[in-house]
Design brief:
Distance between the termini: 18 Å
Length: about 90
């Protein structure tokens, strides 16, 4: 997995699959007030990352936009009714 920072966006390339991946993503987003997280091609998003993003949104009152490239991940997140919480956009 590769993480890039471009302007206000944090771009994830590759599959998010390990605790180390999650910790690396957290280090990029935790200090931001506005989180624009672009997940280009991962088909998975571990529940630990989803839980952390919910905490940032609800407890820390951060704005979060998820931009998802993979159809399966997009469908999963919308099926979990997270579209309204994270302002999910399909790439």
């Amino acid at each position: 997995m590769e993480i890039l920072e471009k302007g206000r966006s944090v771009i994830i390339k590759g599959t998010i699959k390990s605790i180390d991946d999650i910790e690396r993503i957290k280090s990029y987003i935790d200090h931001k007030d506005y989180i624009d997280l672009v997940i280009e091609d991962s088909f998975a998003m571990p529940s630990a990352l989803i839980g952390h993003l919910i905490k940032l949104k609800q407890k820390d009152n951060k704005q979060i936009v998820l931009k998802v490239g993979n159809d399966d991940l997009y469908e999963l997140l919308t099926d979990l009714d997270l579209g309204k919480i994270f302002n999910i956009v399909k790439l």
